[in-house]
Amino acid sequence: MSLENQIRESVLGLDGVGTVYSADPLWLTTMKVLGALVGSGDSAGAVPFVVCVEDEMDGRSLMTVKVRIGADGSVPAPVLARSVAAEIRAFVSGQRPGTDVKAVVEIAAIGA
Predict the structure, then answer these.
(1) Pick from 109, 22, 35: nearest CA to 66
(2) pLDDT at residue 86 above 70?
(3) Which of 7, 36, 92, 94 is the most exposed place for a label (fewest CB within 10 A)?
(4) Angle 77-95/3-12 helices, nearest 10 degrees?
(5) Contacting residues for 96 by C-beta, under 8 A, at least 6 apart
């Protein structure tokens, strides 16, 4: 299982998380899929739910992890966002020691 899929499963297991949406907004996902279909004529690839980008910064490895979640309403949104970010940082640090982690958590929907 890829790191992205492991992060998705980990986030889905947290209290307050109802779902994990595609990492990009719907309009951007649609444009990417259409672009892939028009550009290559092949079928579009899978839509990523978690995006991990690794860069070098000042001689250190930095991984930016982006995730969009739907909250079920049982945990206040700010608390949930911090909890998800902390889970992502802990998970990636355990998988890739020595890598700094920047977690970008967007709450796309809050259920009642």
Answers:
(1) 22
(2) yes
(3) 94
(4) 140
(5) 61, 63
